[in-house]
Design goal:
By secondary structure, the protein is mostly helical. The chain has one domain (2-172). The chain has six helices and three strands. A three-stranded antiparallel beta sheet has the order 1-2-3. Strand 2 and strand 3 form a beta hairpin. It is globular and about 50 Å long. The chain crosses the membrane at residues 5-26, 80-102, 109-127, 147-172. Keywords: Membrane, Transmembrane, Transmembrane helix.
């Protein structure tokens, strides 16, 4: 049992890292944010991708500061939808890859853990994001921010997340 829990938590940390890497890479490569203005913050819970706003770092939960910092890099918001969607999309690709490796290596618990951790994390973030958005009156996470910029893209990203996870869940569990 301890072995299974260790695998579960290791896979969870890996999936969180893949999600954040999606935001980071799209921020760097597509948006064009210099490495001096974007960084991973892993010492906090939850982990996040911070953006430099002047002489300090903005975190996504500080909505106005983060938006200001993002606007400095993408003034017309031409890449904001890709930046917001990147975490879920990279996470989904990562889960499919991890599950595939688990199945091919004969260690089903790896694939099962990847799917379950991903579903748990995204469900938590989705519901807390929607609840906080309703309470605070402004986007508070990836889904609500994506919805505010492009509801169609938000639904598409959700489906691109949900369908592969559903298929993997049915196949592995």
């Amino acid at each position: 049992m301890l072995h299974g829990l260790l695998i579960f938590f290791f896979i969870g940390a890996l999936i969180i890292g893949i999600h954040k890497l999606g935001h980071y890479l799209v921020g760097r490569w597509l948006v064009g944010i210099p490495s001096t203005n974007i960084k991973f913050v892993v010492a906090n819970l939850p982990q996040y991708v911070a953006l430099r706003n002047g002489d300090r770092w903005a975190k996504p939960t500080d909505f106005k500061d983060y938006l200001t910092a993002y606007h400095q890099q993408d003034a017309d918001l031409s890449h904001v939808v890709a930046f917001l969607a990147a975490g879920e999309l990279f996470q989904t690709v990562g889960v499919v890859a991890i599950a595939g490796v688990g199945v091919l290596s004969g260690v089903d618990i790896v694939g099962q853990s990847a799917v379950l951790v991903s579903l748990i994390l995204t469900s938590y973030h989705l519901f807390s994001d929607l609840g906080l958005n309703f309470h605070m009156g402004h986007p508070t996470g990836d889904f609500s921010a994506l919805w505010s910029h492009s509801p169609i893209t938000a639904v598409a990203v959700f489906l691109l997340f949900a369908v592969p996870h559903g298929i993997l869940y049915a196949a592995l569990i």
